[in-house]
Amino acid sequence: MGRHGGQMAAMDGRMGDTDPVEVAARRLTLALDALEASAERRGETDRNEEALATQIHALGSDRARLASELDQATARARGLEVANRDAALRIARAIETIRSVLEQND
């Protein structure tokens, strides 16, 4: 083999484990695998963030709707309280009028 033995191995496609090109190729493959895994994790994180943002938006919309419904219900309750007081006052006046009429007839 001699001096040309290493050249012959390189020429027929065989490389030793210590061949710098092979070592660099392995390192490159590992780095690309790590980059791909990182990109997949980042994509998953982005999808999770988008899902969370969608949920937050939905919760905000629900909150706004519920606040509006509460305001409407509160306003209606206040209106009913006023109507109740008015009705109670009218009933009290009617009772007094009926008593007066009954007392005059006795």
Give an account of the 3D structure.
The protein has 106 residues and is an all-alpha fold. The protein has one domain (15-105). The chain contains 2 helices and no strands. The chain has helices spanning 5-11, 20-105. The model is unreliable at 1-12 (pLDDT under 50).
Helix percentage range: over 70%
Shape: rod-shaped
Radius of gyration: 44 Å
Q: How do the helices and strands follow one another from N- to C-terminus? A: HH
- Main sheet record: none
Work out the helix count: 2
Q: What is the overall pLDDT average?
A: 87
Question: How many domains, as an integer?
Answer: 1
Low-confidence stretches: 1-12
> What is the structural class?
mainly alpha
C-alpha termini separation? 145 Å
Number of strands: 0
Instruction: Report the β-strand fraction as a percent range.
Output: under 5%
List its traits:
disordered N terminus, mainly alpha, rod-shaped, 88% helix, 106 residues
